[in-house]
Amino acid sequence: MRLLGDDEVHGTHVREVGGVPLMVTGAFDESDLGVACYHSKLGAVELYLNHLVDGPGEYVVVDMTAGADAFASGLFTRFDMTFLVVQPTRKSVSVYRQYQEHAAEFGVPVAVVGNKVTGEDDLLFLKEHVGDDLLAHCVQSSYVRAQEQGREHGELEAHNRRTLDALKAAVDARTKDWTAFQRHAVEFHLRNAAAWANAATGHHLSAHVDPEFRHGPEALTTTTALT
């Protein structure tokens, strides 16, 4: 799929909020309660990203739950850059360390965004514990708090706007690695097949891997030719 293309997924599930196209997953309905885990909802995000071909100047921002939940699937390998939001506390730093350790095993790029920094002591604490991974930080924001409370209140602080610019620049500086994207997709398909899916379906799902298929713009060209 192309980003915001003319297809059933985008046509059905995208709505605009404040001029920004938004898709939401994770809601539980009555039939899910006591039956489905949250990872069944995150699976929809992973499937979407698996089929997406985005290009320069196109951005998909995925707001994930804090902590290591993303490692229950291959979702954590689906991003060009992962920004870990870390507050200047020992608990928040411990979550960062756990995530960073797992991500490093797969070569997943990680950067830290300090959050709710109220002064030099907070900033020094973050620098001490996350080192060069600290890309930028956000100061405590009365604007964000007002928005969360449903109140109109000025505009985002200049420092926090510069932080968002730094995040965008960091993403723009990366070259999309479709080869790594493909390698991770195949690896996690095979892991799931061996762990449970072969037994659940009665088929050897490793046979579903097409050695000639390539993620990225090449896949769009192939699909167009077939149709």
Description:
The chain has a 3-stranded parallel β-sheet. Strands 1-2 form a two-stranded antiparallel ribbon. It has 3 domains: 64 residues, no CATH class; 95 residues, P-loop containing nucleotide triphosphate hydrolases (Rossmann fold, 3-Layer(aba) Sandwich), CATH 3.40.50; 51 residues, no CATH class. It is mainly alpha-helical and 227 residues long. The chain is built from 8 helices and 5 strands; from the N terminus they run αββαβαβαβαααα. The chain starts with 7 loop residues before the first helix and ends with a helix. The mean pLDDT is 89. The radius of gyration is 20 Å and the shape is globular. Helices cover 44% and strands 11% of the residues.
Defining traits:
Rossmann fold, mainly alpha, 3-stranded parallel beta sheet, single chain, 8 helices, 227 residues, 5 strands
Low-confidence parts: none
Q: Please report the distance between the alpha carbons of the first and last residues.
A: 14 Å
Q: CATH-wise, what's the superfamily of the largest domain?
A: P-loop containing nucleotide triphosphate hydrolases
- Structure classification: mainly alpha
Strand proportion, as a percent range, falls in 5-15%
Taking all Cα atoms into account, the compactness measure Rg is 20 Å
